[in-house]
Amino acid sequence: MKRADAAALALPRFRAPALFGVIGLLFVGLLARTLFLQSVDNDFLQEKGAARFSREMELPAHRGQIVDRFGDALAISTPMKSLWAFPAQFDATPAELASLAGVLDTTPQKLKARIAADEGFAVLAKQIPPEQAARAMALKIPGLNEQNEYRRYYPGADISAQIVGFTGDKDAGQEGIELAQQAWLAGKAGSRRVIINRRGEAVEDVAAIRAPQAGRDLALSIDSRLQYLAFRELKAAIDKHNAKAGGLVVIDTHTGEILALANWPTYNPNARNKVARDRMRNRALTDVFEPGSTMKPFTIATALETGKVRPDTVIHTEAGAMTIGTATIHDAHAAGPLTVEQVIQKSSNIGAAKIALSMPAETLWQTFSDAGFGTPPRTGFPGEVAGRLRPAKTWKPIEQATMSYGHGLSVNLVQLARAYTIFANDGELKPVTLFKTDGPVAGRPVVSAATAKAVRRMLEMATLPGGTAPKAQVPGYRVAGKTGTARKPEGHAYAAKYVASFVGFAPASNPRLVVAVMLDEPQGGVYYGGDVAGPVFSNVVGAALRMLGVPTDAPVDNVVLPPPGTEIREET
Amino acid sequence: MTRVNLVLLGILVVCALSLVTSRHDARRLFVELEREQAKSRQFETEYNQLQLEQSTWGMPARVEKIARENLRMQLPAAARVEVVDTTAKRAVP
Questions:
Q1: A429 pairs with which residues across the strands?
Q2: Which residue on chain A is closest to B47 by alpha carbon?
Q3: Exposure of B26 by Cβ count < 10 A (0-12 exposed, 13-18 middle, 19+ buried)?
Q4: Can you give the pLDDT at residue B92?
Q5: Confidence band (pLDDT; 50, 70, 90) for A80?
Q6: Regarding beta strands A66-67 and A218-219, do their DSSP bridges make them parallel or antiparallel, or are they unpaired?
Q7: Which of A113, A114, A110, A112 lies closest to A122 in space, CA to CA?
Q8: What is residue A147's predicted lDDT score, i.e. its pLDDT?
Q9: Which of A275, A399, A511, B21 could form a disulfide with A424 if both were Cys (CB 3.0 to 4.6 A apart)?
Q10: Rounded-to-integer distance, Cα A399 and Cα A409, Å
Q11: Chain B partners of A77 at a C-beta cutoff of 8 Å?
Q12: Average pLDDT, integer, range A352-361
């Protein structure tokens, strides 16, 4: 038995080496395969692996706030959550789906439809409050994920809508300051790479997290209290006179900051789904109109500057009609001889035209241009317009005459308000801005201080009885300003539609605020700037000076209105 | 020789144990960091919402409405205003 075993064990001599050889070869094969996978095929495999278990997640950056000059928010981002799922991993029982739908205020059918709609990535709820998202996540449904996002809110709603603007998709500014200052406000989104498990949950960070960089805050020159006041008074006047549109600008004479800029019509930027684009325009900066009589002070200032006239020079205003070439210009209320002061006080077209025609066109053009007409106001707002001021070479005498009282050129409301800083600041034009500035800003001299003071006096006379705007007076403060009532050009003729405006400043003894009011197409019989825009100026300037704590420069019983029934004569 | 080896073994054991402890510490601290970060995010959210609430409640439109309707406040007429002259003592701002 033992022998037989021994015989059986006598194996062929080559068998062991052969086996070793085969096994060795297999090892070599394995080694070669390993080398191949590690070197040649490495990239491809890494990619495949990463695609299966690692995900790049975006970390949204916080967008900077837009605040008013006191730091109160005008636009603010708050964190929101969005819920999403990889449909392949989403696995909810009907009961879970029903409770998820309950939390999200929707129906299970709608959720199912959303998951079926996209194979890679399905958004189940966009920008919901964090508490709601937490309740949804508490259901612990496999494949359900949340993501941090931000939503922009505008506490000022319709009051400051046109200045601030709004953001669209992906936090990109679409209108107003949100658009103009996109680079400053926007942060840089960060990202993190995570390993996810079978259920689609992030389990581990791989590589370094690229932290999101928050955007910077931006302080506007707007004073929320004045902005509201301006908006309220403008709205009231528009309702009262049934006007089509309107604008109101308040400028600080020392710094050129725009403290308030109200527009009508307006919209609510928090719910703007069905808002016509027309309502989104910041008319005070993007729309032009023919200013009418509010241009007269610039004509007079030019004439005073050249020495052609003095405030008490007498101008004969003919009998209310004057022919230049083939055209005739009119004063609706013939006034006989007027001093230069009275030309402003009574707003005589013929007076202004005669003074204008006594100077070369270039001289007049130079003052208008230096006062900022024909160039954009550069407030930092997107889409602001320059208005139209044609070169002096192309002016015909009749045009020179009509331009002296504000027809044949166009301006926007902010330009007009800025130009009046010349008279409020002893001849210096201040640059205007929508951003908060510290301390007084240097202006550019346009006329001499003496001329500015003389015009200031005339403008104050215009608001006193005998002037065109007694309704612009304010209890406790001396005010100065000019009315404008311009017929609107339609095609080649002037229609029976009006733009009523008033531009002025207060206190007249040491001006602090320039306020410009414009109402487009007031209806119902009353359309004079003094009747329509004057009271708005009075209400806004009075309340604003009180809010700013500006000392009064007149007794509180200073308002003297002409006796009832007196017709206030104003040219159009 | 044996002694040196024993000493080295001792050092090795100590090092191994300290590695275990520090790994454990690191993990514990990471968890803590995550928790604090979550808290900071939560506070940021809350702060933002409070800011939003503050600016919404503090809008001049709402303040005025409450002053007029609930508190029945109104602006005094010009005739009822007495102006006190303080310019003599204080500089004009």
A1: A444
A2: A78
A3: exposed
A4: 47
A5: confident
A6: parallel
A7: A114
A8: 81
A9: A511
A10: 9
A11: 48
A12: 91
Q: Which residues of A are catalytic?
A: 293
Q: For residues A551 and A490, is the Cβ–Cβ distance under 8 A?
A: no
Q: How far is CA A550 from CA A250, A432, A456, A558, in A?
A: 15, 21, 19, 17
Task: Report how far residue A459's alpha carbon sits from residue A473's, in angstroms, rounded to the nearest whole number.
Answer: 12
Q: Is A91 on the interface with B (CB under 8 A)?
A: no
Question: DSSP H helical segments within A405-509, as ranges?
Answer: 413-419, 421-424, 449-462
The interface pTM score, or ipTM, of the predicted complex is: 0.72
Give the DSSP letter of residue A255: T
A314's CB contacts (< 8 A; 6+ apart) are A337, A338, A339
CA A294 – CA A485 distance, rounded (Å)? 8
Query: Which region among A19-28, A43-52, A264-273, A540-549 has the lowest average model confidence (pLDDT)?
Result: A43-52
Contacts of A78 in chain B (CB under 8 A): 45, 48-49, 52
Can you give the pLDDT at residue A235?
94
Q: How many CB atoms lie within 10 A of CB B49?
A: 16
Residue A333's pLDDT is 75
**CB distance A265 to A279 below 8 Å:** yes
Residues 424-483 of A with CB under 8 A from B: 475-476
Q: How far apart are CA A204 and CA A54, in angstroms?
A: 9
B56 lies within 8 A of chain A by CB = yes
Closest CA to A67 of A170, A173, A219: A219
Length of chain B: 93
The secondary structure element, H or E, covering residue A445 is: strand A444-445
Whether the Cβ atoms of residue B48 and residue A76 lie closer than 8 Å to each other? yes
Q: Is pLDDT above 70 for B49? A: yes
A91 neighbors A213 (Cβ within 8 angstroms): no
Do the beta carbons of residue A550 and residue A512 sit within 8 Å? Answer: yes
Q: Do A76 and B51 touch (CB under 8 A)?
A: yes
Is residue A340 exposed (0-12), middle (13-18) or buried (19+ Cβ within 10 Å)? Answer: buried
> Using CB atoms, which residue from B59, B83, B92 is nearest to A155?
B59
Cα separation, A413 vs A502, whole angstroms: 10
Nearest to A85 by CA among A114, A45, A62: A114
10 Å CB burial of residue A40 (0-12, 13-18, 19+) is exposed
The distance of Cα B47 from the centroid of its chain, to the nearest Å, equals 7
CA dihedral for B42, B62, B59, A282, sign (positive or negative): positive
More confident residue, A169 or A391: A391
pLDDT level of residue A551 (50, 70, 90 thresholds): confident
User: What number is the average pLDDT over the span A468-488?
Assistant: 91
Mean pLDDT of A174-182: 90
Structure token pair of residue B21:
């402890």
Tokens of B8: 């080295």
